[in-house]
Amino acid sequence: MANCHKIYFVTNVIVSSLGVLTSNGNHCVTIFLYNLTYILNRLLMEKIFQKLALSSASIVFIILVGIFITLLSSSKLAIDEFGFDFLVNPDWNKEVVINPDVSNTPVVSELKSDEIVDEDDGMIEDEDEMLFDEDDESDVQTKTIYGGLVPIVGTVLTTLIALIFALPIAMGIAVFLAEIAPKNISNVVGIAIELLAAIPSIIFGMWGLYYFAPIVSDLVGGYQVSLLTAGLVLGVMILPFMAAITRDSMNTTPGVLKESAYALGATKFEVIKDIIFPYSKTGIIGSIILALGRALGETMAVAFLIGSIFVLPTSITSPTISIPVAMANNFGEASGLGESALFYLALILFVISFGVISFAKMYFLKKAK
Amino acid sequence: MRLLVNKLFLTFSVLSALIGLAFLGWILVTLFIKGLGSFHFSLFLNDLIDGGLRNLIIGQFILAGLAAAIGIPLGMAAGIYIQEYGKGRYASIIRDLSDIMMSAPSIVIGAFVYAVVVVPTGGTSGFAGAIALAIMMIPVVINTTDNMLSLVPRELREAGVALGASKYRVILDIVIKAAKIGIMTGILLAFARIIGETAPLLFTSETSNYFSLDLTESFPSLTVSIYDLANEPEESSRDLAWAASFILTVLVLIINLTGRFFTRNKD
Amino acid sequence: MPVMKIKKFSFTYPGVDHPSLRNITLPIEKNKITALIGPSGCGKSTLLRSMNRIHDVYSGNKYEGKIELLDFETNQRNNILDIKKENELIKLRQQVGMIFQKPTPFPMSIFDNVAYGLRIAGLKNKTELADRVEQALKDGALWKEVHDRLGKSAMGLSGGQQQRLCIARAVAVKPEVLLFDEPTSALDPISTGAIEELLVELKKDVSIAIVTHNMQQASRISDYTAFMYLGDLIEYDKTENIFLNPKEKRTEDYITGRFG
Fold first, then answer.
1. pTM for this model (two decimals)
2. Which candidate among A62, A336, C127, C138 keeps its CA 20 to 30 Å from the CA of B132?
3. Is the ipTM of this complex over 0.85?
4. Which helix (H) or strand (E) holds C57?
């Protein structure tokens, strides 16, 4: 069948040119052939178009599956080596001595890490010094272990802080845009909020580090680069998303419903609390979860502000690290097991994001579009 | 009492809006002051090796442009499939997967492209970076095409069919045209987003101090260089990073606002 | 002589278990206007939309019976329900045109709108296109109003003008039958009057079937009327008989306004 299509396509080209040449084309055979090839050409085009559209759509599927497979295979080394311990081990890039005299139990030597905190720009550089117990010097086997607990904790905590900070403000903005402001102001402020969302994340990093973080640490003490400052800037970043989606959700509340409540003498607050919020509940929760998904994967702003050290935070104002930042900082120089460990982190992040967003979609699905 | 609660709540709401605006203003003012402070026109004439930003700005546009050249046709075709041809399950699965990809961590996409493009080809390249950006753009274009097409009334499609047009002609001649403005806005907004991205480029195309049009090597990127410059100890590097941030933000906001300009009458 | 014969036609929508049309038998007479009237939900639009198989834009429909269309060249009747190939469906729609309740101008210029059906049928010659467009706009009683702005967007026309544009667009491909699905229900009384006049003119060249919920309209312009109720054809006759001397009680009740 495909060959027939090709023949007719070529014939069409020839006959079309013939048609042009014979201008008004009164020749019956020409017209007949022309029509015939035109019809078949149209069928061919329809099939081609459909196939193209289908292939493009399938590419999405392929990419997503591809990402998952690639992450799995690239992290296989680390998964085989560390298994689920990776999720609870706080030691990253720690050289471990395996004492061959004692049967199979590794003895962990104390390693001293010198961490230099550069006060000007908060970037931290590691310098490891290794101390060996002199008795074991002769027959020393070492291996490097990686544990992902610190970045995982950092990712989760910064996201949580961002959510707690952003949620009330985002809801307040949404209410303002949907119910309080007159149409003109609502449009302008709405656009301003959406512009906040458009600002590239690296800009948030720059501004956050040099202007926002100093103020925060002045107010609450602690380091300028910390869980708190990273979380807060992350919050400012997800603020516009939550506000915009919540506003859109609230705007779907039917006017007659609101009017009925007002007609009974309810205050604006009561209408929002009792009518609008319950009505747009699923949309609001969906927006929160979606913002959560975004916050989990945010790299650049957090990279500037979190401190980038593989140490569990002792307080909310101490520096630590998150998964995207761990990747951003170490990917360039990593190789072998270290690189695989980074992929393992990426896999964990991907699975968490995927799970969170799928969950949000299920919630959204209840609100039929 | 009720009135008091109401008043408090409304005040809180207005305050929140002000806080949101304040953050926006704060960031923009900061950029303006620090950026303009380090700004001079030679930035557009020199490359990074000479302390300018020319190669980075051009490079970022080329990367984003190439990503758009890949992402827009693919995204639109896929969006058309979902809305116009999709039958049941497969189409809605693709739609869901696309939404999930929209929020996928950009650094993970960078790692993916690293593994499948950079490693096999033996090194970082502009192509890899553009591919990473394209992967980020495709789901957004799909989403916008899908939504805009769904707004076209079905009678318009039926009228086309009633005249004897085949399906692909109805889609191309009538439906896409009717949704044209919305789709264009969506595409512009998507472009504005990827031109500001850093993470996907970090290990795929990195950056370069020199002017380059060679997409097979590390390729100059404004965003990645801002990150590098900010990490350097010298004050001058930091100043340059601010100037670059200012220019980047202005660019992104202009593209974003241009996109909105097209749909200004739709409200 | 009927240009279309509907014989024992039943239709079921996808996913529904009972048919929306049951055993309809009805002719569409050549160069006459046939009106389909009845209360909401009686199936008149469903029947109309079967006559150009526009239902098949959506899959899963069940047809029974026959709808025979007279082929003017061969003088044979072909059952359009037998058509399976996309290509022949396209040809059917070039023979049986449709105008919808809501005016549906395409997002293009006035000229391009009217020329659309011709272009997709393969007509490329610019002079011929221009002639056909002019003729169609004249047939659609729109030429005088738009002849000096054919390049302007069709979206700038008023509702009544847009509907006449849709009529001109449908007429341009010279169909044998034109189906009108409540063409004036979205229009003001003056535009309605203009279109009713137009229909009476058009029947010289095409055969017309019109669905209307406006009984006065049916009695004004149609030659034959079919009254439908809950998926059945209750009565079909010359219009004056239906309105002055209905045979069925339900017809009489509907005409006199007892229900619907």
1. 0.81
2. A336
3. yes
4. none
